[in-house]
Design a protein that fits this description.
Elements lengths: L7 E5 L4 H11 L6 E5 L5 E5 L7 E5 L7 H15 L4 E6 L18 H12 L3 E5 L14 E4 L2 H11 L4 E5 L5 H11 L2 E11 L2 E8 L6 E9 L3 H12 L4 E9 L5 H7 L4 E5 L11 E4 L2 H12 L11
Parallel strand pairs: 1-4, 4-5, 5-6, 6-7, 8-9, 8-11, 11-12, 12-13, 13-14
Antiparallel strand pairs: 2-3, 9-10
Helix pairs in contact: 1-8
Length: 313
Amino acid sequence: MSYFEPDAKIFACSNSTYLAEQIAKSYGVELGKVTFSKYSDGEFQPSFEESIRGLRVFLVCSTFPSSDNLMELLLMIDAAKRASARHITAVIPYFGWARQDRKDKPRVPIGAKLVAKLLETAGATRIMTMDLHADQIQGFFEKPVDHLFASTIFVPYIKSLNLENLTIASPDMGGSKRAYAYSKFLGSDVVICYKQRKEANKIETMELIGDVTGKNIVLVDDMIDTGGTLAKAADLMIEKGALSVRAICTHPILSGNAYEKIENSKLSELIVTDSIPLKQETNKIRVVTCANLFAEVMHMVQNNNSISSKFLQ
């Protein structure tokens, strides 16, 4: 009896199933079957319910907290390795722990480096991710890293708005490179927010570098966590004479009372990807999918084609 067996399969961690289903649909295959057995103390064990011997497997898992997501991915990688998969690509739309990319004070870990080593030790042969918090995290890996940019999704969306006097803004100095990259493709001006923090997630002061009077502002950032920075930036820009302020953030972490802050801010719209599932729906948040981008790049990787066309930055 003859049958067709695809040479690549896609599987998902439990909290990334919805996105993985969309990726698999766009890729043109059924999402692979994996089950998780759980013990009463919280320990869990993944099991592939179909053969993956000699195949390339794509394991889709955003590693946002809790750490169970990362642990699921590590266990799935190990299981795939022991099941004789030919290539194991960890598809991590949101690479968690990335804010710990350096020692910014004594006696702290470099968490992003630790996660990179864990993924490689588990058996990942390739990493695919999107909008890392810090580009240099690619250098923490000894395996190939496909670092995709959500600008390939967001730039067409911004163009579709047909905003007059468009200005791209960065909510902090660290995001200025990203803002200038967007402005290059959109032919717009750039303004930068300069902020100082007393501690993580708490802003002490914020000032604007550049003129926003009479401008339609689009803030760009790689992630939104508590929402405090973007809400404060939007309020400041409207106060300084901006016509409108919207924000584009790749990864919607949205912890604490972030949804309330966004709803009560001067932001007219927050555009995010589905790299992390939203906890609730609001009128101000619009989701654009990254599934097609990942599916296209996964096809390119599988067929050994160049993926440089997917890099706008």
